[in-house]
Amino acid sequence: MKKQLDLTLYLVLDPLLCEGINGMVNTTKIAIANGVTAIQLRSEQTFSGKDWYYAALALKETLKGTPIPLFINDHVDIALAVDADGVHIGQSDLPVDVTRQLIGNKKWLGFSISNHQQLNAVPWQKVDYLGIGPIYPTATKKDAAKALGTKQLTELVKLKQCPAVAIGGIDESNITDVIHTGIEGVAVVSAICGKKDIQQATLSLINKIKQAK
Ligand SMILES: Cc1ncc(COP(=O)(O)OP(=O)(O)O)c(N)n1
Ligand SMILES: Cc1ncsc1CCOP(=O)(O)O
Ligand SMILES: [Mg+2]
Question: What range(s) does the Thiamine phosphate synthase/TenI domain occupy (predicted)?
Fold first, then answer.
């Protein structure tokens, strides 16, 4: 059965910031115990096929028996190999229709957009949620588009036809403004990964979301 698609606080794991597979597993355990509602495995650094597979397998095992879904960034083969709950792709990845054909309807499909033109081209029937960003400058994605800011995000939120998360440079200092745009949730990497106190970092974000909604 499909797991929930609750985008409230979506944690995108970075193996470098979390210091490896054990670090990602540990971060995930603490994050989901304190309110994170979705997990994605993403690596910008060199990560072999085997690294992807064993990391995804460990995370799948960690989330077993919980309502929290596991998404795999870009790599449909890894998502299929570990039977992840979903895949996240962007403008430069496999086309949406091809990805949907490969993963079927039992897995969630997330798709990134960074502007109005990309939003107008979204195949809404095939996508379950959008990742909209970057909202603010970020060091976590080298080829990130220009930061949108919350004014443009508000416009995109009004036009979208499926749920969405905002991503890029979001932390406890600006998360309230992002939630006030009316978006369903927020995705973060560095606001949780690599923090000394994962519990405190997660709670601070989740409490600000609750207050802002
Ligand atoms: C939740 C979420 N939103 C956006 C992205 C970015 O995807 P993409 O544009 O394909 O860039 P990479 O992450 O592949 O570098 C994401 N991963 N997750
Ligand atoms: C994956 C991704 N897509 C757009 S910005 C971004 C990186 C977000 O990382 P951080 O939360 O550390 O800014
Ligand atoms: Mg991608």
Answer: 9-192
Distance 65 CA to ligand 2 centre (A): 28
Residue indicated by tokens 């650094």: 45
How far, in Å, is the centroid of ligand 2 from the Cα of 190?
8
The answer to whether 55 and 23 have CB atoms below 8 angstroms apart is no
The CB of 75 under 6 Å from ligand 1? The reply is no
H or E segment at 211? helix 198-212
Share of residues in the chain with pLDDT > 70 (%): 100
Nearest ligand, measured from the Cα of 109: 1
Asked if residue 132 lies in contact with residue 167, where contact means CB atoms within 8 angstroms, the answer is yes
Domains, the chain, in order of start with CATH, read: 9-207 (3.20.20.70)
CA 118/CA 141 separation, integer angstroms: 18
**Per-residue confidence band for 92, with pLDDT thresholds at 50, 70 and 90:** very high
**pLDDT 10s digits, 161-198:** 999 999 999 999 999 999 999 999 999 999 999 999 99
pTM recorded for the entire structure: 0.98
CA 82 to chain centre: 18
